[in-house]
Design goal:
This protein is 42% helix and 20% strand. With 432 residues, it is of the alpha/beta class. The strands form three sheets. The chain has a six-stranded mixed sheet with strand order 6-7-5-8-9-10, with helices on both faces. Strands 2-1-3-4 form a four-stranded parallel sheet, with helices on both faces. The protein binds guanosine-5'-triphosphate (GTP) and magnesium ion.
């Protein structure tokens, strides 16, 4: 379904800003991120245009004069693609393509395109196809030729061309089929996830390219795909996070429960809503986590804005009330160390690491453990004499400190958190 072309397309970027109407005022900085996105998608960016207007041109978004200027440039410089930071409607696409005489994409197209090339598992592929179709559906009034051209994207073809060449009913049918398949996958995931009840669950979340995959690799000695590109990760990878005894450096096998840590898809400003929707099941891991490690690229001049975007996206996922530890990454790239001092006072409890250089990872693990055990309660529970099954189960739900085999009972001293203790009271055969 996804094909790669060899030759790189030469692209021009356009950002339109309207300080009177837009909710988020765009600045020229937006073009840096758009450039990175375009390059990730395989294009070569030749020139960028930024226009701030007090009025909005219903035909082209940008002013007619600007359109002519860009058209001239496109003609003289072998440009095959013009990419807009702003979301475009179908009239914009039609009018702009007529004037510019080349393919026009908006940022959503671009992100969907990158997702399509990076989707590896069948779940990610289904989710991307669903997002593409949801994006396409309201734009169906455009001509098919336009649609297939537009959905050709930069290096890839969109959802199978066959669907595009048919009609809306077929698209609806495909959307339902995809949703059905995804629901089935979600049900499977839920079953697997219920087995994870016996683990603590920690997820790495954050803006794209901040180093989440590098961090999970450093923490768990794994080899999740790392790349200086946007959206390198689309699937959740889960690993066991081993906690080591500081003195002996041996793995503590029964830190109350084992800790699972997951790497997740990165966020970006104006992440298309259809993508957030389609990726809900991938992001379910985030929603079900005990702790979120909000990873931040502190060396990026826009990290403050990126943090805001992440918090907004977490809110959309209803995961903003979870325990969140801010992990400021890439400190090795920081020249201004005073920034760390300032951030420590603004965000108490945050940690500063370099995933790449393996710096300060122990303090991150310590912070996780502290949060996981902060409501630890020490209890004594009694099991019936001979109930070794419950005793062995107890090891999975709590840290067993001491066991005494009495005549009529087994007396166990445990350390666990309140949530697990409540569960234990309900499910175990305790005696008084
Ligand atoms: N200097 C430096 N570079 C880092 C550090 N951590 C990650 N990187 C680099 O940042 C780039 C992105 O790293 P990834 O781990 O792929 O980032 P990610 O957050 O998983 O990105 P996506 O999956 O694309 O959202 C790579 O080139 C890494 O080598 C760090 O601590 N210091
Ligand atoms: Mg990644």
């Amino acid at each position: 379904m996804i094909e790669n072309k060899k030759e790189k397309e030469r692209a021009v970027l356009v950002c339109y800003s309207n300080k009177f109407h837009d909710k988020h005022i765009l600045s020229e900085d937006s073009l840096d991120e758009l450039k990175l996105l375009a390059e990730t998608a395989g294009a070569v960016v030749v020139k960028s245009y930024f226009q701030q207007n007090s009025y909005y041109d219903i035909r082209y978004l940008i002013g007619k004069g600007k359109v002519q200027e860009i058209a001239e440039y496109v003609k003289n410089n072998h440009i095959s693609l013009v990419i807009f930071e702003n979301e475009l409607g179908f009239t914009h696409f039609r009018n702009l393509e007529n004037e510019l005489k080349c393919k026009v994409l908006d940022k959503t197209n671009l992100i969907l395109d990158i997702f399509a090339s990076n989707a590896k598992t069948s779940q990610a592929k289904l989710q991307v196809e669903l997002a593409q179709l949801e994006y396409l559906r309201p734009r169906l009034t455009r001509q098919w030729t336009h649609l297939s051209k537009q959905f050709g994207g930069i290096g890839t073809k969109g959802p199978g061309e066959t669907q595009i060449e048919t009609d809306r009913r077929l698209i609806d049918k495909r959307i339902s089929a995809l949703k059905e398949k995804l629901t089935k996958l979600e049900a499977q995931r839920k079953t697997q996830s219920s087995e994870r009840e016996n683990y603590y669950r920690v997820s790495l979340v954050g803006y794209t390219n901040v180093g989440k995959s590098t961090l999970i690799n450093a923490l768990t000695d794994s080899d999740v795909y790392v790349k200086d590109k946007l959206f390198a990760t689309l699937d959740t990878s889960t690993r066991v996070l081993n906690v080591k005894d500081k003195k002996t450096n041996e793995i503590i096998s029964r830190f109350p429960k084992k800790i699972l840590i997951s790497d997740t898809v990165g966020f970006i400003r104006n992440l298309p809503h259809s993508l957030v929707e389609s990726f809900k099941s991938t992001l379910a891991e985030v929603v079900e986590s005990d702790i979120l490690l909000h990873t931040i690229d502190v060396s990026n001049p826009n990290f403050n804005e990126q943090m805001k975007v992440v918090m907004e996206t977490l809110k959309e996922l209803k995961a903003d009330e979870k325990i969140i530890i801010n992990v400021f990454n890439k400190v090795d790239k920081l020249e201004d160390k005073k920034l760390i001092k300032d951030l420590k006072s603004i965000y108490p409890g945050s940690v500063f690491v370099s995933a790449e250089k393996g710096m300060n990872l122990n303090s991150l693990i310590d912070a996780v453990i502290k949060k996981l055990t902060f409501d630890n309660v020490e209890k004594i529970v009694k099991l019936k004499a001979g109930d070794y099954k419950s005793l062995s189960d107890l090891y999975n739900i709590a840290e067993v400190k001491d066991v005494k085999y009495l005549k009529n009972s087994i007396k166990v001293k445990i350390n666990t958190n309140q949530k697990n203790y409540n569960k234990l009271e309900k499910t175990f055969n305790l005696i008084n």
